[in-house]
Amino acid sequence: MASEYLEHKLALLPDMPGCYLMKNINGKIIYVGKAKNLKNRVRSYFKSSHEGKTAKLVSEIVDFETIVTSTDKEAFLLEITLIQKHRPYFNIKLKQGNGGYPYIKITNERDPQIKIVNSLSKDGAYYYGPYPNVYAADETVNFLQKVYPLRRCNGYQGRPCLYYHMGQCLGPCFRDVPKEEYDKQIKKIKSFLSGNVDSAKKLLTQRMQTAAEQMEYERAAEIRDQIKYIEITVEKQKIISNDNTPRDIFNYYMDKGWLSIQVFFIRQSRLMKREKRLFPIINDPDEEMVSFIAQFYQQKNQILPKEILVPSSLPTDVISNVVENVPVRTPQRGQKRDLLDMAGTNAKLVLEEKFRLLELDESKTTGAMNELTDAMGIAPGHRIEAFDHSHIQGADIVSAMVVFDDGQPNKNLYRKYKSKTVDHADEAASTREVIRRRYTRVLKEHGDMPDLILMDGGEIQMNAAKDVLVNELGLNIPVGGMVKNDHHQTADLLFGNADTPLHLDPKSQGFYLLQRIQDEVHRFAITFHRKVHTKNTLTSRLDAISGVGPKTRNKLLRKFGSLKKISDASEQDIRDLGISETVAKTIKFSLGKITKPDEAKE
Hints:
The protein contains 20 helices and 18 strands. By secondary structure, the protein is an alpha+beta fold. Strands 12, 13, 14, 15, 16, 17 and 18 form a seven-stranded mixed beta sheet that branches. β8 and β9 form a beta hairpin. α13 runs parallel beside α14.
């Protein structure tokens, strides 16, 4: 339901194309979208029911603004610019770079080299790749330098380099290598990298036979290994098209608010690389795909193909205009259509795998709960409530409770308690107090009782909890004690009247769940204690100022929140709270010297 303020803004929306920017309570842009009709699109967020990521987005929107454009295409281009500028949380965001896959480069120089690079540049060089296997790329370059050498030295030095003597350099280190000689070698390298390996194998076979005839058996074995390398790394890559056109293929699958995207990179007639992305999405999947593709080619060093293939539901003309007029097509039959369908099938499998893993995680956590109850010999259950105490040398004693349902934390049910126990060393008293307060209230409100209670501590805390539950409240809830070792790591679980702990398998799901619960309740207690201690320290400093009583102190805390901010405030800011001029001057004088970092943190 939109607020009255948003209702007024919605009524003023134009029936025109453009972009809209959703903002949260802090005025931060959290989502950017485009629309052919701003009025219909923006109103749909507040006039329809949603689920998943869209529902989360709508719950955080407190304001929006719009930018009208002349056409839908202009809106699309503007949307991409705004997403890149503001990086909104709810928009699809792409990582920069090419994923770390290497390319093989033949440099554009008088004396060219062949090398491995991690990015592409418009420098006139020849690039092949990307290669999904770094080792294979490195071995390919080493192989080519031996079979079709170019330059491996730093250039002219008046004498042949070591690589020249090894037959891996054409010799620009001591002579002027004719351009035709380089061109001949480069033609062979390009043919090899394009998949034509028969001539290279034939040449190597001849060299191997010659070496064997001359009884150079080590040399023959080395050449044999080079031939084997071609067979297992180069020829193994299946040729999937009949031309060498570099093309990228995009397809997707959408289910349960998630978009699964597959990108196939076809280079040298082979599938050289695949990328997969998963996003929870807000808009129509086709619109999100167009946005994804546009952002994809705006990444640094992302080389453009000669052709892009997409499913028929996407606007090929819009994508082509955005991606520097690269032809964008939807194949209807043949190998290209098969590749597009294969990308779609892979996208579906990846998303289904994600859902299966989520189900598996759920079964693991439920299974972990069952492992715990089985080890303790109690009935299977669903809810665990765990408690811990925290203090600093007896000051500001607090207790905290966390709740786990079927092995997952339920943070909505966490509770914090400021202890009234005077003696901080009396762990039993602190335990009795928090257990009494918690379950007296649950009984009074007819709330749900846990199936198991865990105390972060040993036998003292466990027995104190059982004493209150059984003897005061008449409750028969199993209670265990979580024990840590000398390294403050989860070690054992105490239960019942046994003198020895229940030794859970440290590799079991049950032990892992116990460890998570103990870490979580300790974290929650420590966090709460720091807040209480900081606030009490701040309060004591204010109480020490003449003329500042509880009412004045509370006004200052509510308005400024810290001593540093009170100190930085002007005298008039303080007086605006209804504080007299005399007291305001006293406060400014008393806090005027807060410059140390530790004081500022208060």
